[in-house]
């Protein structure tokens, strides 16, 4: 359960983030941290960036109050600082993707070198232990960079990235409470408080954007926390928990990569075919689009929690069903353009059955 001290840490992080955001807005305007509209962006007027700085201030206040002890705290905070600096530089000068990834790589290596990784996993049904060895470092680094960028990629509407991050962290919080992981509970509670303190200024119509300062920082924190929440060893199905909890940014990123490869574009090239773009194109309002994606995020967050309460066979069926569901959703709204393999296969199957029905009649 959440202790009274952790609750106070939540309130402190929320308050500091809420109170500091107006000052961050003034700071952003004065020093030129402003997002200029272009053909890809939904907003029509310049908006202050680096809203993530408010979240960082709130989280820092919460950590200083709770003083959560953990061997990895210093390297995790150092990595977070590097991500913060990279985000601020990008918000000001628009770094190229390779420089952003380089900064993320350095941060990830620092954290993983300190021991934030999964050393082995256990195959269910047979109970065989698989040592990951050097691959544990590689997998952890890739995971941190991937989730850091996934959260950043969905930051296209007011309140979207921050809200989805809060939802994903809430799922991780519940799982941590069920497993009694006090350090993860403390950090997660602090981050949720910081995000909720910032959201009133970020929800549509936003007074300030999260910016890469915030989106990259939140992505990094969620990636690291999800690894810490798994501990050093897991069953292979447990690896699916953070993926389910983070389904919205993960699958939106995967479909973006597939879409760009199919269109023979660079995977880093921007487009207007992300989940939120497609919902807007279908006629949903800005607020409605964000709330729909929130609902999808909550659904997957609850699914991750229920996933831990079922048998292994049910977990396997559950995961397959979720993958099919998300693929259908992606094809229906056009996340991968005109490529609809699953819907095409279903249509062929239905067409094959129709002649059989007519013949029997």
From TrEMBL:
Cofactor: Mg(2+)
PROSITE patterns cross-referenced by the UniProt entry: MRAY_2 (PS01348)
Chain residues that bind Mg(2+): 152, 212
GO molecular function, one term: phosphotransferase activity, for other substituted phosphate groups
TM regions (residue ranges): 6-28, 49-66, 72-89, 101-126, 132-152, 159-177, 183-201, 208-230, 236-258, 279-306, 312-336
One cellular component (GO) term of this entry: plasma membrane
Chief location category: membrane
Domain of life, source organism: Bacteria
Assigned keywords, A-Z: Cell membrane, Magnesium, Membrane, Metal-binding, Transferase, Transmembrane, Transmembrane helix
Membrane topology designation: Multi-pass membrane protein
Species, as recorded: Metabacillus litoralis
Full protein name: Undecaprenyl-phosphate alpha-N-acetylglucosaminyl 1-phosphate transferase
